[in-house]
Amino acid sequence: MTDTTGKKLAVRCAALFALLFCLVTTANGAERVMLKIGDPPPPFSLQDTEGRTVTAPGDFRGKTVVVHFWADWCP
Questions:
Q1: Is residue 27 part of a domain?
Q2: Is the peptide bond before 43 cis (omega within 30 degrees of 0)?
Q3: How many CB atoms lie within 10 A of CB 72?
């Protein structure tokens, strides 16, 4: 086995390991919930800008709530 063949094998094994790792970690991810219009949202909690825990829909029951999904990489 030449040195370049060994390097190619190592790169392929590393790529295969990375792919398998990604598949395993995402396969056991969060449960997908398919909602229809009018269905109640699944419960979730998060911290507001002042550090208080906010639980939805409990804290907002009977109120209109707009959830805006945003990420810093969005233009």
A1: yes
A2: no
A3: 4
Q: Assess if residue 75 is contained within a domain.
A: no
Residue 68 inside a domain? The answer is no
DSSP strands (E only) in 1-75: 44-47, 53-56
- Residue by residue, pLDDT tens for the chain (75 residues) are 567 888 888 888 888 888 888 777 766 656 666 788 888 778 888 888 899 998 877 778 888 878 777 777 766
Tokens standing for residue 35: 């909602």
**What's the predicted TM-score (pTM) here?**
0.36
State the total domains in the chain: 1
Q: Residues 41, 56: contact at Cβ < 8 Å?
A: yes
CB 57 within 8 A of CB 43: yes
Q: How far apart are CA 22 and CA 68, in angstroms?
A: 28
Q: What is the domain range of residue 50? A: 3-60
